[in-house]
Design a protein that fits this description.
The protein is mainly alpha-helical. It has a domain of about 60 residues. Helices cover about 75% and strands about 0% of the residues. It contains 3 helices and no strands. Helix 2 packs antiparallel against helix 3. The longest helix is centred in the last third of the chain and has 42 residues. It is elongated and about 65 Å long.
Length: about 100
């Protein structure tokens, strides 16, 4: 279970996944994109070349699916971030 990552004063609102939260806050995905692209390309080549037996091919497919799901998760987190920002802006307008 993740532990809260906020500081003792409460000024930091991180809730336990500081690396992911920093990525979502800064939207600097260059290192992630580089790493995922490299691994994904390697796995696709292995799949095309039918590297290993059936068990290894199944593992390669699972790894590719995991990368796809990870990218989908990041997109969903960004959508949620922008939805929260939009809701906060609407609340600010309503208070005026």
């Amino acid at each position: 279970m993740a532990k809260p990552a906020g500081d003792k004063k409460g000024s930091n609102t991180l809730i336990g996944y500081p690396i992911i939260e920093k990525l979502i806050q800064t939207e600097d995905f260059s290192k992630v994109n580089e790493s995922v692209s490299s691994c994904y390309d390697t796995l696709e080549k292995m799949l095309k070349n039918k590297t290993g037996g059936l068990k290894k091919q199944k593992g390669i497919r699972s790894a590719l699916k995991a990368y796809d799901l990870t990218i989908d998760l990041i997109r969903e987190l960004l959508k949620t971030k922008y939805e929260l920002i939009r809701q906060n802006q609407q609340k600010g307008v309503e208070k005026k």
